[in-house]
Task: structure prediction
Amino acid sequence: MSGYLSGQHAIRFDYPTSHEPKPRQIDSFPSSVAFDAINSSLQADDAERKDAVKKGNAIFAFKLKNKEGQEEGWHIDLKEKGAVGKGEAPDGKKADVTLSLTDEDFGKMVAGKTQAQRLFMSGKLKIKGDVMKATKMEPVLKKAQTTAKL
Result:
């Protein structure tokens, strides 16, 4: 719903039509397309997905912060399903390792423009949980490099 105030200057204003929060724009987390690409690469080949689950054997959580200071979470389940989802872990599960970084740095990491180790050493990547499991994410991210356009 919108309206106008009159007087010397016309000012347009918009009223929300409901009390529910507006959905976040896709552009607020540009690297979210990388999670779609990771999921697509996992779903594309059953044998490769099973291999990734066997090698990863963990639930990886990602906490990303965008330029506006908003935070969003995704997870990659390489413990059971071999799938990507929103939030820190699948329902009823707990992440084995949580990686916290900016959306921009995650995009660079997936695009192959920087390495997780370099981000970690510079303090731009924070890891909670099993740090050794975090190293098992790199092959999965590399597979997404070819399909994610960041």
Observations:
- DSSP finds six helices and seven strands in the chain.
- The mean pLDDT is 81.
